[in-house]
Amino acid sequence: MTAPELDILRLLVLVGELGSISQAAAVLGMTQPSASKRLSTVERRLGLVLIDRTRRGSALTPDGRVIVGRAHRVLGELAGLLDGAEALRTRHEAGLRIAASMTLAEHLVPGWIGELNRANPGLRLGLEVTNSDQVAELARSGKVDLGFVESPGALPGLTSWKVAVDRLVVVVSGGHPWARDRRPLTAAELASTPLVVREPGSGTRETVDTALRKAGLGPVKPLLELGSASAVRNAVVAGAGPAVISALDVTDHGLVPVEVEGVDFGRTMRAVWPEGRRLAGPAAELLALAVRRSSRG
Predict the structure, then answer these.
(1) Domain stop point among 61, 92, 123
(2) Which of 28, 95, 109, 219 is the most buried (most CB within 10 A)?
(3) Which residues form the HTH lysR-type domain (predicted)?
(4) Strand 146-149 to 95-100 pairing
(5) pLDDT, tens digit (0-9, with 9 covering 90-100), for 255-267
(6) Residues with Cβ < 8 Å from 276, sequence gap 6 or more?
(7) Dihedral angle, C-alpha 245, 250, 255, 259, nearest 10 °
(8) pTM
């Protein structure tokens, strides 16, 4: 059995609403003879009489009312599909979805998106701030157009591009013994000291663990695990204990940097997007802008 075309379903619905084939045909821009012929054809295909045709007008038969009830659902689903597709098209044409890990979101991404918005005043832009693991997952699943991460590890399923460099710094409060000790810490001293750290999945936490492992030591020992860079910073200022944070977070917060020997805390910050996908439009513009700003200093 061949399924009826969508315009025949619309015609049937209108006949039921208007009680007239000619009026229903006029609404759809058809002639009355063409509409009658198409309705007769669909009745033959379905093996059902759908319309009672009389001199006073046309009315749906009981079978016709069942078919029209189902046609309403089909046409409603189609309208929802088309509305959803239009929303996606509009979002891709005039919007940009970004996710960024916290250090990038606090210090670098606002400047990049500000410059992008000045060049594209009508651009709608959304930024989600979370840790590097979650940013990578959002990018991998296509829930954002572009992500920015600070973790050093492999990123399966993603293409990445360097957008900035950063280094981590051991910091303590002014009252901590390390603030008064002029000699550098050893890597072993740092590794054996419980630290205020970010949660697992954070790029900063992963960078610290990776650096300690490269120095032949175990991962960091958590004193406190906190969910944001500002929470870690505030805990250090309050005297909770040492932490390793981005150099971008140290300025003007009353923190004392402590030198460490034998550990490389440098890291590369990267833009990420799904492997095999070519960046275009505002996402490509933002990546180019971030790389350009990084190259200037």
Answers:
(1) 92
(2) 109
(3) 4-61
(4) parallel
(5) 999 999 989 999 9
(6) 159
(7) 60
(8) 0.67
